[in-house]
Design goal:
heterodimer; A: alpha/beta; Rossmann fold; 6-stranded mixed beta sheet; globular; B: mainly alpha
């Protein structure tokens, strides 16, 4: 089984400042991998490097030849001066038929929106339209960057159920960045915990009990609440053999 | 027919107004109004340069406008506050242009003509240059329409779909520079950005899709050019500003229509 995406010693920087160092990540077909980490831990930078929007400062990103990526951004601000129906939006940058528009909207769970204006959609509808767009072209991998930001709890839960349904039907791999740890972790094959570097990784159970993860997120269901009180002085368990210098 | 100066003026105005309307939509959607202003104000520096070195005005303006647009792209992409950089460069370009023109010997420089346009003095060669430039702008925007729209919506999403947003940005920059070079004769350096923005903004309330907005902007641009020419002839007012006035009145009307529907 060849990897869809692979990074080797990937280091990323903005304006000369290193935001993420030495990431070695391999994504196999059909896998669900979740990336967690506090704000500014390099999650979004990693995603942008994977889709090719950010060049590595060091190391490589290797994509399987002909890899099809479906990308769902964190949010999308459409200027009110730009009139855009859902159907037209889905026809960018390549024209697809109205049958395919209807099909992809159905898969994303919003079958009746084709003629609506993008700016008139609710938050949940909007994210599903972004999902519908990502599903066009039958992606090998869906990449979601905090796609439920701005949704309430039921909306978030429903969105992730939709992702699971899509994944079951299409068999694509899923890589997602999330704040909603308790919602996402259970469905993931693997969790990657970032904080300027890979703090720890493994199955949700292993990561949830890893000292590095607990130092970042606390324990139990209060984990998500500890997100913004992240300590830079946390210590690593024996399974982590790296230091913290690179992240600071 | 082309021997009549009014016919040449009408063709010049129509060509420019119609061709730049779709580009104007992108200027509105991407919030590049001040970017357009700064680029077109730099045109005067191009005029001074062309006259000083005895080069064609079109070439001088094209080079300076392109240089200015690229400089702006570079600076605003580097995390400097875009708003103040644009403000500084827009006015600095105008001031340096005015000073540079004053250094030129002789009284042959008609400053007013370059600031507010001189559409009634369009010659046959001018008309050829204007139409060639207008068709180039229209062609560029039409050919890259879908990619430009994608890049406008979200650079990252465009990238994931195989569109290079930086390339699309450059295409817009190039189209803008050509627009400035051909429109300076029609409405002048001060009002080129108005010709880009106002028809597009006036078309917004009438449109439900980007393509209809571009088409409506072309029609509004054409109506403004012809209407402005007729009104300026009847009232003996400067033609370039009159064209922009008509566009502004249409803008106000479509907003009123929109408010009435809401």
């Amino acid at each position: 089984m060849t990897a869809l995406l692979e990074t080797s010693d990937l280091t990323l920087a903005y304006h000369g400042r290193t935001v993420l160092s030495d990431v070695n990540l391999t994504l196999a077909p059909g896998e669900i991998v979740t990336i967690v980490g506090p704000n500014g831990s390099g999650k979004s930078s990693l995603i942008r490097a994977l889709i090719g929007a950010l060049s590595p400062a060091k190391g490589h990103v290797t994509r399987k030849p002909g890899l099809r990526i479906g990308y769902v951004p964190q949010s999308l601000a459409i200027d009110p001066s730009l009139p855009m129906t859902v159907a037209r939006f889905l026809n960018l940058p390549r024209r697809i038929g109205s049958a395919q528009v209807a099909e992809t909207l159905r898969q994303a769970g919003v079958p009746d929106l084709a003629r609506h204006q993008m700016t008139a959609l609710s938050g949940g509808q909007f994210q599903r339209v972004l999902l519908a767009r990502a599903l066009l072209g039958d992606p090998d991998i869906l990449i979601l960057d905090e796609a439920t930001q701005g949704l309430d709890q039921p909306g978030t839960a429903q969105f992730y159920q939709q992702i699971e349904t899509v994944k079951r039907q299409k068999g694509c791999a899923v890589l997602m960045v999330s704040h909603d740890l308790h919602v996402v972790m259970a469905a993931s094959d693997r969790v990657l915990c970032l904080n300027g570097h890979v703090c720890c990784e493994g199955t949700p159970e292993i990561v949830a009990s890893a000292p590095a993860y607990r130092a970042l997120f606390g324990t139990g269901t209060q984990g998500a609440l500890a997100l913004y009180r992240h300590q830079h002085t946390h210590s690593h368990g024996p399974e982590c053999d790296h230091t913290h210098e690179a992240a600071e | 027919m082309l021997d009549d100066f009014l016919v040449r003026a009408a063709l010049a105005g129509l060509g420019v107004a119609v061709a730049v309307a779709p580009l104007g939509c992108f200027v509105v959607w991407r919030r590049m109004a001040y970017f357009g202003d700064a680029t077109s104000h730099a045109a005067l520096l191009g005029v001074a340069l062309a006259l000083a070195f005895d080069l064609p005005i079109f070439g001088g303006v094209l080079v300076i406008a392109l240089a200015m647009a690229l400089l702006l792209t570079l600076l605003t992409g580097k995390g400097v506050s875009g708003d103040s950089i644009l403000g500084v460069l827009a006015h600095a370009a105008l001031a340096f242009g005015l000073v540079a023109v004053s250094f030129l010997p002789g009284v042959r420089v008609d400053l007013m003509g370059y600031l507010v346009g001189d559409i009634l003095a369009v010659s046959k060669p001018d008309l050829a240059v204007i139409w060639a430039g207008a068709l180039a702008v229209l062609g560029l925007v039409a050919a890259r329409w879908s990619a430009l729209l994608s890049a406008t919506l979200s650079p990252d999403m465009a990238r994931a779909a195989g569109v290079d947003p930086q390339k699309e940005q450059f295409i817009l920059t190039l189209a803008l520079a050509i627009t400035v070079a051909v429109a300076i004769k029609v409405v002048g350096a001060l009002l080129i950005a108005a010709l880009l923005i106002i028809p597009a903004a006036a078309a917004r309330p009438l449109s439900r899709a980007p393509e209809t907005m571009a088409a409506a902007a072309m029609i509004i641009g054409a109506a403004s050019a012809l209407g402005g020419l007729l009104v300026s002839f009847a009232l003996d007012t400067p033609t370039g500003p009159t064209i922009v006035c008509i566009a502004a009145v249409i803008f106000a009307l479509t907003r009123v229509v929109q408010a009435g529907r809401a």
